[in-house]
Amino acid sequence: MRAAADVVVVGGGVVGMVAAVTLQQRGARVMVLAPDDTANIVSAVAAAVWYPSHTEQDPRVLRWARETRTELGRQAVNGVPGVVERPTRMLLRHRYAGPPWWADACGDLVAVAAEPPYTALLRFTAPTVEMTPYLTWLRQRLEAGGGRIVRRRLRRLADAFDTAPTVVNATGLAAGQLAADPAVHPVRGHLVLVANPGLTVSVRDEDDPAGITYVHPRRHDVVLGGTYQPGVGHTRPDPDTAAAIRRRCVALVPELADAPVLGERIGLRPARHGGPRVEVDPDPGGPRGSRLVHAYGHGGAGVTLSWGCAAEVADLALDGADGRTPGRATNPVRRHPLTGDA
Question: Residue 93 domain-assigned?
Answer without folding.
Answer: no
